[in-house]
Records
---
Amino acid sequence: MYPLLLHSTQQKEKIIIIYIDQHDNITQRTVQVVTIKSDSILAFCYYRKEIRSFHLDRILSVGKSPWQVRYGA
């Protein structure tokens, strides 16, 4: 999980996370990680269109987004 979070931060790429929210609902979010902290990440959430905090212990899965913008291809 951590390598993809770090990659999103360094390359400014979108990733998809499966997350349990504060009401124990499972959600899928497309995000771009801004900062990785010891217990959470700050990421731009494309659903909410704002910077959000996601607790690392509530992230169930992380994957690459199929909607990457490729320049010069």
---
Amino acid sequence: MLYSIPWYVVLFQSIPEMFLLIILGFKLFNIDVDFKKSLLVSSLISIIVYIVRRFTSIYGLHTVILIFCSLIFIWIILKMNIAYSFICIVTSLLINGLLQNIITPIILNLFYTTPQDLIKNPWLNIFFYIPNGLIMLCFYLFTVKREVHLFDLKMYENNAKNLFKDKSIFVLFIVLIQSIFIMLINQIFLLSQQTRIVGIEYTTINIIISVFTILVLFSIKGLGDDIKDKVEMSFLKTHLEQMEDLFKALRVQNHEHKRHIQTIQAMVYLDEIASAKEYIDGLSDGYSCTDDIIYVENMALTALINGKRKVAEINNIDFKFSINCSLDGLKIDSWDLCSILGNLLDNAFEAVRKEKDHRLVNLDINCFEENYIIKVSNNGVKISKDEMDKLFEPGYTTKESVGRGYGLFLIKNLLEKYKGSIEVYSTDKTVFKIILPKGEGNRND
């Protein structure tokens, strides 16, 4: 049965517990929240739960109201989407419930108390929560220090609709709902015990539920890894498509060269020297430089640049590029390099499309001391200061901004992977400046 609690339990247990649930839950999914606003949300939720517990005796109702109010207040105060807020809060509740299932029976036996004593002496609620709260706090500090998270939910931030494009997310919702329900049933059974020593049936059920809860958490981690693999596979697919386009262009060019050489060879064998000269002059005059394959030191970059040259030609964009140093020390996977530059060039092309006169996009790669300096610039729509602050937020997009969707967010994550950085300037031109440290060897074969 649900029992009421005095105000000091709300102050010293409910509010800290809710606060830890919020910051840990979001941190596990790589979402940072404002501490002050989280404390405000925690206080409001705890007050509502306090009122609910005074006027109802149905155990579990307060948890349902806690989840519902959490989603509403987080949406209003923290400005976060309800969909992934639900995932974060319920996952954190599962961890908290798991700790309670393990710790509470142990403390009851150690101090020769029963669940009924929690009702008679409310201070015991605070005392019993201390080890649980300390473990939750240590868990949070560990995730911050080690940058450990179940999966990167941040990529869905500001665009919760993308959560439902993957059917596995529906499975996650169902599993979380089932798990929290089972956890509540287990706690109801514990509170119904009149003695400090619980029976073998409860102990067995408690162990099974705890094991399954841990498996659920590992499943969430596996789901996050699966989503990450899908993103990387998408990058790799784009890279392979670019390479395939390059090989097709090379085959076409090779076929044309063979045909011209065979024609000239036949003219020479027939002693038609004048005709051969005329044929060669005609080829020279009519040969379009845009049909040439531009070769650079890196094969993946060759494919990317030639592909973007075609896109620029179709859209009447003056695409210029220069590579002024050796790429041997550029230690970055080919598909990641193409993902970074491909996204930046796509954004630059989009930014200049509204220019009526001269549409200019530049790609420059230089070396300076121990770093590679890569710049992608355009003379298109400028980025305002307000847009600049939000440019790398996941899901952020405007019709006129070069920062669209998740491209820049993914670029920033890829650069962090290689200990690089990105800077943006928007004055006469908009410039994206990438700094990548040199490494031994080359991963771009």
